[in-house]
Amino acid sequence: MPQDIDDIAFEFYGALSKAIPDVQQSIWSLLQLADKEFIPALSSRQGPKDTVLDHKNAATKSLPVDYFHEMSKQPVVVARLNGKVAGFMSYKTDYEVPETSEKVHAYVSTIIVNPAVRGRKMTARLYQRLFDLLRNNAQEYPILITTRTWSTNINHLTILRRLGFECIFIGKDGRGMGIDTVVYRLKLDRT
Ligand SMILES: CC(C)(COP(=O)(O)OP(=O)(O)OC[C@H]1O[C@@H](n2cnc3c(N)ncnc32)[C@H](O)[C@@H]1OP(=O)(O)O)[C@@H](O)C(=O)NCCC(=O)NCCS
Hints:
This protein is of the alpha+beta class. The protein is built from four helices and seven strands. It is about 25% helix and about 30% strand.
């Protein structure tokens, strides 16, 4: 039985490398836990900045060390459930989306919720936190937010569409036969 969503608390760190050890360790554990859910696996990537995700020639490493290292430079929003780190979202600011050459205010690079505690709308709430953070620092509107995922990631896609994100790019078979790379964008207004 899912616990009440009010048991969830959020924290923000300007860079993962500046987060307290408990957060860094928990995020490292979450990366390992969810590694193979990603297409391609995080352990086969150099980092969230990878612009070409070559599923055919993906290196087979056992741990997502490079990915974690690259992510360490990025801001991160952390969700705790009953005091324990249960999920996170990392992102980049002022980023040019390679697929569209559009400059955006934020590019969400990674989201993971511990499989044991999914189904509590934690990702939607992480996005809401991100929106608050971006609005607090906004110098112009709309704020452009993008993320890239794959066409069979129904959980993430359902959440994105509900939040108002629109698909702006489809890279056919980008992640393998029948699995497209998709880029979604939200234009966030003042309210
Ligand atoms: C994506 C992820 C972060 C979402 O976790 P979460 O916050 O617990 O997600 P939730 O379960 O609350 O929300 C998923 C929603 O999709 C819905 N959904 C799932 N499959 C669906 C389907 N086939 N049709 C319609 N809706 C569907 C769920 O019902 C749920 O909506 P609900 O809350 O109204 O029931 C988690 O699945 C994860 O960590 N995945 C692995 C990593 C990943 O893919 N990250 C994103 C890419 S960077």
